[in-house]
Amino acid sequence: MSYQQAKARALANPLAPNDPRHGTVNGYSNCFCRCERCRAVWRRYIQRKGWNREHMRRYREDMRQQRTSHD
Question: What is the DSSP secondary-structure string of 18-48?
Fold first, then answer.
């Protein structure tokens, strides 16, 4: 399954309100949940890793390259 297919599938079937993945990095990154709890956890995760905007830009570029190499 491609990244675009996974994202479309996750957005078409959002996490249920009582799903235990809410408020987790997994919920934000893999399930594409953007609820306030998931966003807050993702921010803390990024801060703990010491990432700044430049790190995030490189991370997104790397992920984009990986997706295009698998398609």
Answer: T-TTTTSHHHHHTS---SHHHHHHHHHHHHH
Residue from 9, 1, 33, 11 nearest 20 by CA: 33
Enumerate helices (H) and strands (E) in the chain, giving the number of each.
4, 0
6-4-18 Cα angle (round to 5): 35
Q: Rounded to whole angstroms, what are the CA distances from 68 to 3, 17, 31, 49, 58?
A: 9, 33, 20, 26, 15
User: pTM here?
Assistant: 0.64
What is the rounded average pLDDT of the residues 16-43?
90
Domain ranges for the chain, please list them. 3-70
